[in-house]
Amino acid sequence: MYLITGASGLVGRPLVAKLAEEGVRVRAVTRDAKATSGWPSGVEVVEGDPSVPETIAPFMAGVTGIFLHSRAAAAAPAEVLALAKDHGVRRVVALSATNVDEPAEDQPSRFQGDRNKETERAAVDSGLDWVSVRASFFAANTRLTWAGQIRAGDVVAGPFANFAEAPLHERDLADVVARALVTDGFTGRKLELTGPRSLTHAEMVGMIGTVLGRTLRYQEVPADAAAGSMIARGFPEAFVEALMNRYRRLAGKPGLVTDGVAEALGRPPRSYADWVADNASAFRA
């Protein structure tokens, strides 16, 4: 039995599906079991909040390995893993990030609730067999930031056209986590996962257009204007400030590309074009 925290989210959903597809017994933890549906057959869905560890303690019985999501666990990753160890859990795969060793103020996702550093450290110190999966930029972030503009027209306005990332398909991340959970080959490793190719903002928008059969263009706007627009749309001000500072610091440089996905899975990572094709409906009017 494998316990999956953050099970209803971007990483958890495909991870649960992958494990179920492989015939692995899965216990999916969600904060509101009544509000979610569409789980694969045989998955045990339970209601609990990993940031309040005692709410998931009853679900540790019979668990072999746990996926610890760095946002779901919030400030309590060490407490969650102490409970896991007390219940005989043997392995943890922790979600972290490729920028985890940078100063905290330079990690925008911290201002969205991610605690990658703390979660990775808790895994390393847990006394369990551990693997840290350090994910890069999620391809899905582009759906959040650009889909509305693309549905409305052919121009995407945003800052730093030459800022680059190697977008990671969430299904590749889930596949690697699944492999790390059920096999022994990655114990004690910090696996850095990226997509196969560094792409600038402008190149990503052009690629979306190619997949959709449209001509799309990225129009660079001043960082201050972009920041104001994001804050007006509800993004936390501290997150936006950290993100713009990251753009300024790294603009014009290639995004990190690793062979972590290929090493773990024995195949190349899915491309950004693959991700767009899988999510094309989000960009169509």
Oligomer: single chain
Model regions low in confidence, pLDDT < 50 over at least 5 residues = none
Tell me the strand order in the biggest sheet: 3-2-1-4-5-6-9
CATH topology category name of the largest domain = Rossmann fold
Explain the overall architecture.
- With 285 residues, the protein is α/β, with parallel strands linked by helices.
- The chain has two domains: 2-135, Rossmann fold; 137-168 and 194-256 and 270-285, 3-Layer(aba) Sandwich (Rossmann fold).
- 36% of the residues lie in helices and 16% in strands.
- Strands 3-2-1-4-5-6-9 form a seven-stranded parallel sheet, with helices on both faces. A two-stranded parallel sheet has the order 7-11.
- Helix 2 (77-86) links the parallel strand 4 and strand 5 (91-97).
- Helix 1 (12-21) crosses helix 5 and helix 7 (223-232) packs antiparallel against helix 8.
- The longest helix has 14 residues, at 237-250.
- It is globular, with a radius of gyration of 19 Å.
- The mean pLDDT is 94.
Produce the secondary structure layout:
Layout: E1 2-4, H1 12-21, E2 26-30, E3 44-47, E4 65-68, H2 77-86, E5 91-97, H3 116-124, E6 129-135, H4 141-152, E7 155-158, E8 164-165, H5 170-182, E9 189-193, E10 199-200, H6 201-212, E11 217-220, H7 223-232, H8 237-250, H9 260-265, H10 272-278
Parallel strand pairs: 1-2, 1-4, 2-3, 4-5, 5-6, 6-9, 7-11
Antiparallel strand pairs: 8-10
Helix pairs in contact: 1-5, 6-10, 7-8
Short description:
With 285 residues, the protein is α/β, with parallel strands linked by helices. The chain is 36% helix and 16% strand. The protein has ten helices and eleven strands.
